TrEMBL record, chain A:
Full protein name: NAD(P)H-quinone oxidoreductase subunit 4L
Keyword Transmembrane helix: yes
GO cellular component terms, semicolon-separated: NADH dehydrogenase complex; plasma membrane-derived thylakoid membrane
Protein topology in the membrane: Multi-pass membrane protein
Function: NDH-1 shuttles electrons from an unknown electron donor, via FMN and iron-sulfur (Fe-S) centers, to quinones in the respiratory and/or the photosynthetic chain. The immediate electron acceptor for the enzyme in this species is believed to be plastoquinone. Couples the redox reaction to proton translocation, and thus conserves the redox energy in a proton gradient. Cyanobacterial NDH-1 also plays a role in inorganic carbon-concentration.
Automatic annotation (TrEMBL), chain B:
Keyword DNA damage: no
Protein name stated in the entry: NADH-quinone oxidoreductase subunit J
Subcellular location: Cell membrane
GO cellular component: plasma membrane; transmembrane transporter complex
């Protein structure tokens, strides 16, 4: 097993996350797609850590930081979605157009 | 090139199975109409990623992935879906299907670009993988020697995001001592909430 299958799997997950981020109309699904993209990045970091830096596994340290920051961002993002839902009574992304020109 | 005690064939089969599970559940997350099914498939995605971490000699990070992502983030997403669960059909937007197709084409192009980049680069792969007694010990040594500052900053960031999420999502209830003249009937058992000022939507 070599490095490249892991990188291709991570690239596929990242592209699926981008598709979900752009086309979702539900705001919670947008946040789920962001989590998919962060997992793809983590997989990349871990693959490089294992095959290029296996003595001092700095990629794994970086991955732990990304996991913790992703958890914090998911909490704040969902609090924002909840707050928007309370004031607008919808989670349709097409309706959140206050900043549109 | 792994230090797991599995043979080479088992590792390849595991990789193929985990990759298939990962891709299928990720497609389910972004394509399914029912958001609850999508949230559960997100949990399956996280578990497959943890399995891939195990194939990469990362036992501690695989356990942390299951604990944090499946155990906390996925549950949080499910609770948020429960709280914003409004059964409505979205009004169709014009050129909606065309937008999805164009986005799909762009994402496929990006994946092709990344795939070509990955396969055509000469990665400087180390000849053999170091056998560490415990990844957790090495990670702990990093956290307290050369990655100490990011570790402390991450803890401050978690504290700040905790306070921020609570402040954003709280409701301010009007205490019972005030007699407020709102249009709520006498028999209603709702807790009165202080109304928040809202910006008007453009149409």
């Amino acid at each position: 097993m070599s490095l490249e299958p892991f990188l291709i799997i991570a690239a596929a997950l990242f592209c699926i996350g981008i598709y979900g981020l752009i086309t979702s109309r539900n705001a919670v699904r947008v946040l789920m797609s962001v989590e998919l993209m962060l997992n793809a990045v983590n997989l990349n970091l871990m693959a490089f850590s294992n095959y290029l830096d296996s003595a001092s596994i700095r990629g794994q340290v970086f991955t732990i930081f990304v996991i913790s920051i992703a958890a914090a961002e998911a909490a704040v993002g969902l609090a924002i979605v909840l707050s928007i839902y309370r004031s607008r009574d919808t989670v349709d992304m097409e309706q959140f157009n206050l900043l549109r020109w | 090139m792994n230090n797991i005690g599995l043979g080479d064939g088992s590792q390849t089969v595991s990789l193929v199975v985990l990759a298939a599970m990962l891709t299928a559940s990720a497609m389910g997350v972004v394509l399914l109409q029912n958001i609850v099914y999508a949230a559960f498939l997100l949990g399956a995605t996280f578990i497959s990623v943890a399995g891939l971490y195990l194939l990469l000699n990362a036992d501690f990070v695989a356990a942390a992935q299951v604990l944090i992502y499946v155990g906390a983030v996925n549950i949080l997403i499910l609770f948020a879906i429960m709280l914003v669960n409004k059964r409505q059909d979205y009004a169709s937007v014009k050129y909606g299907a065309l937008r999805n197709v164009v986005t799909g084409v762009v994402c496929l192009g990006l994946f092709a670009l990344l795939g070509v980049t990955v396969t055509s680069t000469n990665w400087a792969i180390a000849p053999n993988i170091a056998k560490l007694p415990s990844t957790m010990v090495v990670i702990g040594q990093h956290f307290f020697s050369d990655y100490l500052l990011p570790f402390e900053l991450a803890s401050i960031l978690l504290l700040v995001s905790l306070i921020g999420a609570i402040v954003l999502a709280r409701r301010e209830f009007i205490p019972d001592t005030f007699k407020v003249d709102l249009k709520v009937s006498e028999e209603s058992l709702e807790l009165l909430e202080k109304p928040k000022e809202q910006l008007t939507a453009s149409k």
